[in-house]
Amino acid sequence: MIWKDGDYWWLQINKELVGYWPAKLFSSLGKGATEVLWGGEIVNEKTGGKHTSTDMESGHFADEGHRKASYFRNIMTVDKTNTLREPQGVYPTITNDNCYNIKEGRNGTSWGFNFFYGGPGLNAKCP
């Protein structure tokens, strides 16, 4: 979790506070973020006219699910009152679902707001 409290940005992993940084180091963030992004990214230069064979994360498609595809779970944002909230207005985007894809998980589970994503890149459906 990353959040701003007063003059500092804090980083916490699980229940352990890892550290903090003075807010002045991140002057472009102002008082907070206006957009949050989660996911993966690859570079595709289409060398030889073919899509890259670079895996996104585990290299497994989202519909392969847990223990195969990569995922984010229990996604939350911190609002201006330092309260954790499930993100609102989330919409998945993908540029080529034959190479990589994304699948939203189920809300109301111990995984909270979540999604699976990934893919192998170059394959029979992704030339």
UniProtKB/TrEMBL annotation:
Coiled coil: none annotated. It comes from the Eukaryota. InterPro entries: Glutamic_endopeptidase, Neprosin. Pfam families: Neprosin (PF03080). Residues 1-127 form the Neprosin PEP catalytic domain. Transmembrane segments: none annotated. This is Neprosin PEP catalytic domain-containing protein. It comes from Brassica carinata.
